[in-house]
Amino acid sequence: MSEIYERDRSNEDDAYNLLPLSLEKSLPALYATENTPKEKKIVYAKFFTPNSNWTWFVLEGSWTENNEDFTFFGLVHGFEKEFGYFSLDELLSVGKDNPLIRIERDLYFKPTLLTKCK
Length: 118
Prior knowledge:
Layout lengths: L20 H6 L15 E2 L1 E4 L6 E9 L6 E8 L3 E7 H6 L10 E2 L6 E2 L5
């Protein structure tokens, strides 16, 4: 089961709380914006690693069928820039052995058009 269940999901000010309830409720479900043109797509959250150049821009998200994990869809800036799926468990597993490299949620990010995300 995901670490998210062990956290206070109402705490918006915790950068390590990658899926606060407010974000979960605001995200369109997976595939909901599939036919929306790129220039009209909205990014709802930004995750990043402070010690590298990796960034995840979240466009959609849904719980898995068994509610065991949450799957996001978005634009990933890593070695390449590409759209793809990534799970909450994957993000939380980064830095499990070294808390200095954990993924954080940008607390100051406001929903914005995808075209404005660099």
